[in-house]
Amino acid sequence: MLTGNKVILRDKRLADARDDYTWQTDPELARLDAVPRLATSFSQYLLDYTIELRYSSPFRRQFAIDTLDGKHIGNCVYYGVNETKGEAELGIMIGNRDYWDKGYGSDAVTSLLNHIFRGTNLKRVYLKTLDSNQRAQKCFQKCGFTPYGHLNRDGYSFVLMEIHRNQWGEKGKQEFKAASASSRQSDQSLS
Ligand SMILES: CC(C)(COP(=O)(O)OP(=O)(O)OC[C@H]1O[C@@H](n2cnc3c(N)ncnc32)[C@H](O)[C@@H]1OP(=O)(O)O)[C@@H](O)C(=O)NCCC(=O)NCCS
């Protein structure tokens, strides 16, 4: 379990299936994710879901995103893990719209990056998001990702973004400096 400032990332469980099915059959979420809307029945979905939960893969790690008080609001994942190249792709979806634009996505991504860069040897994390998805791009920029190219695929236009371990380290140091400066200021105002 990984704890951020606003979210907890935890292992997926069977009780998540209803939420995940609702989000994967949502036309707007499918459009934002540039994937076809899921068209299977819930009973078939549940069957596949149960089987998938039983198997773990060294190339993929998925987490549920919960609020600190335990509400399931989305999912995130790193996948395509390539130990030789030292990289993996990141994906996220906050399925519950009530939690958009409130910092939950960036906290989940930051928590996942902390886990990846502290807990694995991976050196680079990359992702793609639609050119038109300004919210997602802003969220990823806040987490330290920078754009490095474009990709046109299946009629979609994507911006490609990446973060390297040394950039994540810099971001961590900057946050530490900012936190130290603000704590020095409050110490001075107390004295
Ligand atoms: C993309 C997503 C993960 C971002 O998570 P989130 O919790 O909404 O993001 P955050 O609140 O951390 O950051 C979003 C930022 O974008 C800004 N934003 C929102 N709409 C925007 C727009 N049209 N143009 C520019 N900025 C925008 C917000 O104001 C916020 O910035 P701020 O913190 O400086 O105010 C989440 O919204 C989501 O999953 N959306 C639906 C699915 C989706 O887009 N999937 C594709 C992911 S690749």
Description:
Helix content is 41%, strand content 30%. It has helices at residues 17-24, 27-32, 42-54, 104-119, 134-142, 165-190; strands at 2-3, 7-10, 60-67, 72-82, 87-94, 124-130, 146-153, 156-164. An eight-stranded mixed β-sheet has the order 1-2-3-4-5-6-8-7. The radius of gyration is 18 Å and the shape is globular. By secondary structure, it is α+β, with helices and mostly antiparallel strands. A hairpin with a 3-residue loop joins strand 1 (2-3) and strand 2 (7-10). Coenzyme A is lined by residues 29, 32-33, 92-94, 100-106, 129, 133-136, 138-139.
List the helices and strands and how they pair.
Elements lengths: L1 E2 L3 E4 L6 H8 L2 H6 L9 H13 L5 E8 L4 E11 L4 E8 L9 H16 L4 E7 L3 H9 L3 E8 L2 E9 H26 L1
Parallel strand pairs: 5-6
Antiparallel strand pairs: 1-2, 2-3, 3-4, 4-5, 6-8, 7-8
Sequence stretches where pLDDT stays below 50 over 5 or more residues? 176-180, 186-191
What is bound: which ligands?
Answer: coenzyme A
Q: What structural class results from the helix and strand content?
A: alpha+beta
Number of strands: 8
